[in-house]
Amino acid sequence: MAGLDIDNMRYATTVPTKFSKIELRDIAISIAVLSLAFVIMFRSSPFMTTFFQYYMGDLWVLGMFGMMTVIVIFSFLLHEFGHKFTAQRMGMWSEYRMFPNGLLITLVMSIFGFLFAAPGVVYIRGYVTKEQDGKISIAGPLVNIVLAVIGLALACAFNGSPIVVFFYLMFTLNSSLALFNLLPIAILDGAKIMRWNTVYWGIAFAIAAVLFASRWFGFLPGFYYTLG
Fold first, then answer.
1. Is residue 3 helix, strand or coil?
2. What are the φ and ψ backbone dihedral angles of 31, each rounded to 5 degrees?
3. 100 near 19, Cβ under 8 Å?
4. Helix, strand, coil abundance in the chain, percent, nearest 5
5. Which candidate, 38, 25, 207, places its Cα nearest to that of 106?
6. How far apart are CA 181 and CA 110, in angstroms?
7. 199, 134 Cβ separation under 8 angstroms
8. Whole-angstrom Cα distance, residue 146 to residue 137?
9. Catalytic residue at 131?
């Protein structure tokens, strides 16, 4: 998710060529909290817990946390980088900032088996036209769509083997993030994209919706892996 930061002027006003220490800190905390939230959410899944216990033994929680960390990087982080780097290519200052309250809500919701991820936002400073705002906003969901397709393709390629679990989760999370962020709600990317170009929004939303729905309505072959 991308947003404009007009009032907060304590950060640099020029386009950075590297990540600031504050941004790196916020990224690290967000990844850790989101990964922990996934572990908490999947702790009630008999297959997931058995899967990691089978391969990791007493260290199964660490194994699950490690996989979830990689999945978070290949979904949430690359989504935010899509916004960040697109804005920087346009000559704007852009950095990620975490939402402490959003991270807390994410952890609490994961306890109840539901992940509502609101970890933070990429702030942008500079004059932004409607077209630029739309292009910056669509960059994040497009990254998720590409990663969802890659995850799906690799899940099909490795169906029946242990690694299918990772690729299916990668496909599932990225298709969910793409569809959620493309909803035409004011605080989400979808509303900004619609203000810029409804056709591009419609195409992106339709692709994301098909990817997301394919998990539930049998459009795609089932994925499987049996322990032992």
1. strand
2. -65, -45
3. no
4. 65, 5, 30
5. 38
6. 19
7. no
8. 15
9. no
User: What's the token pair of residue 17?
Assistant: 């060529």
Is residue 87 a contact partner of residue 136, using CB atoms and an 8 Å limit?
yes
In the prediction, which pLDDT does 82 show? 94
Confidence of residue 209 (pLDDT cuts 50, 70, 90): very high
Q: What is the 3-state secondary structure (H, E, C) of 91-129?
A: CCEEEEEECHHHHHHHHHHHHCCCCCCCCEEEEEECCCC
Structure tokens at 131: 């077209």
Distance of CA 224 to the CA centre of its chain: 24
| CA 138 – CA 145 distance, rounded (Å) | 11
Calculate mean pLDDT across residues 98-118: 85
Q: Which residues pair with 123 in a beta bridge?
A: 3, 95
Six-digit token string for 78: 């690359």
* In the block, residue with structure tokens 């089978």: 54
**What is d(CA 75, CA 10) in angstroms, rounded to the nearest whole number?**
29
In this prediction the pTM is 0.85
Per annotation, catalytic residue among 23, 80, 95, 131: 80
Show the CA angle centred on residue 38, arms to residues 35 and 43, nearest 5°: 130
pLDDT at 15 over 60: no
Query: Amino acid letter at 55?
Result: Y
DSSP string for residues in 62-84:
HHHHHHHHHHHIIIIIHHHHHHH
